[in-house]
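ugh ok fine here u go
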Amino acid sequence: MAILTAAELRNLGKDELLEKLANAKEELFNLRFQAATGQLESHGRLRAVRKDIARIYTVLTERALGITEEVDVSDTAEAAVETEADADETADDSEKAGSKA
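structure:
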């Protein structure tokens, strides 16, 4: 799991945030277990995962207090589909132009 920025997290929906939170907590548990048994190689990863968890909680709290608004995942999904359709149309047009030449 890479280090997450607050801006990246604010662009995710609530379900995705909760999924990332669960994954981060599981990773933290595994890292603590490795540290206790002396198998941990990267101690800095413990700190990074704790900070990721804190960032996720911060974004969730901001939304609960109304500081930031919830991202509508359906809008972003529709925009991605429209962009993909536009790219397909452009590719089709360029193929047609290439076959005429």
